[in-house]
Amino acid sequence: MNPGSEYEPPTNPYRVPGRQFEPPMKPPAQPPTLPSGLAPGMPPRPGRPAWVLPTLAAALVVLVAAGGVGAYLVFGGVSGSGAPPASGPSGERSSPPAAAKATGPDVCAMLPREEADRLVPDATVSNSARDGDYTVDFRCNWTNQRISFGEFWRSREVDVKISQHKGDGPKTGRAVAQNSFESDYRSGKYGATAKPSLDPDEKEYISPVKDVQGVGEGAFAQYTWRRDGKLLWYAFGKAVARVGDMTIEIKYQAGQQRKDAQILSNESMQSVTEENALREAGSLAGQFAKGVAAWQARYPGVLAQPPSSTATLSPSARPTPSPTALAAFPAECGAITDVATRLVPEPTTRARGMEDGPDSQTECRWLNLELPGGEGKKKIRSVLITVHRFANRAGAADEPAAKAYYASEYGRDKNTADSSIGGMTWGGLVDVKGLGDQAYQQFVRSRHGEVSASSASVLMREGPVVVSVDFSGHQRPEDEPTNSPKVEFMAEKEAVDGVMTAAKAFMAQLGKQPAGS
């Protein structure tokens, strides 16, 4: 599948140079804060779904903090005018006797595991239930807002609510459910033809209602696409179905954005197409309608009750790989020893390796924490080179994976460029020509953690190989700690000149050495 083919086209959390010191420097993870005429008798115009903004906020926190957060989507009440049906003469909703009750349908179990994995890979799954005045609601949510797919981050979400309607005086629960379904249908029809008042930077499209044949006792699907300024952009398919006294509401959302896009914007955002959204939502309606029918066949005429507990299940965390010391210094690193030792005289060297899925990593470091810096002063200088070689499951070189990794790193650095936070100051990104297929450079100053220093870094990609080169250092009074306020950063010119010298020397050697030597 080509990236983006199913989408509507648009009209390390921070990769911090200088982690070569002991202990490594870590930037703070501080997620940003976000800003936050119908004729009588006409159904209300569907507004922005209440679940969209929590989802967007969760996605942004994930992008900034690189953490997996499952946003739980919250629907409103029964669609239609919003006024509850009139109650019976006693003022109470009618329901079967207490003995005629059973634990309600397990919504999460109705979707086969393989189908859930296809729609929302590595999803966080949440279920909940609620016994209200007019309905007993059971719901399940599958979400993953940060799926790596080539040079894109994808977001996927499936949210399902099954409502069993209680009787209302002389009306049975089945009749109330039918009224609710018809109200939703009329509202969808109206939404497809209404002409909303939009701001100049807002755009919205709501598709015609599409009947879904052969599902329950009635089902339809509809597509919504919305763009609101430079931040919000979403699209989803919705399906509503009825089986007996139960209604089913399903929302399927999908989108993607380039990894190197500006954060907190809809730059390069692509949304699921109408065709795909309607297909998936309609298919899900059929799946859950069968599950509801099976539950009703097992418990005919029974009013469901919520289970005693609900749960949120996150995907199992992958063990974090740990680097191991290499028995010998890699030949490609050894070949530039003269260059490295001019930048870091009399260094202590270290070589480590690590396997992280398709990414085989090699790290070489030259470090001196006790360089003379003039009368009464000490200097730190360090060169760190990390090589990422990507291979597919068959062991063949995987250039697309290298491109995706490079794009992800570029996007993260772009999102912190020309900014400061918590003692960290990032310079702008500078594209570099003549170093592999792609390359860029950045200068960073840090007064965070146990070592204060400035660093210049270059990230380069050559085919299936990505190379990071960092040159870092500072000077300080010899009796001061490494994070003293009296630390003087290594000058930007020295740092940039040094890292470019090391990067050019290493790339010249890269193709001359056997991989992994």
UniProtKB/TrEMBL annotation:
Put simply, this protein is called: DUF3558 domain-containing protein
List compositional bias (Low complexity) regions by residue number.
Answer: 82-100
Q: Where is this region: Disordered?
A: 1-43, 82-104
Species source reads: Nonomuraea purpurea
Q: Does the keyword Transmembrane helix apply?
A: yes
Bias (Pro residues) occurs at 24-34
Q: Which UniProt keywords apply?
A: Membrane, Transmembrane, Transmembrane helix
**Any transmembrane segments, and where?**
51-75
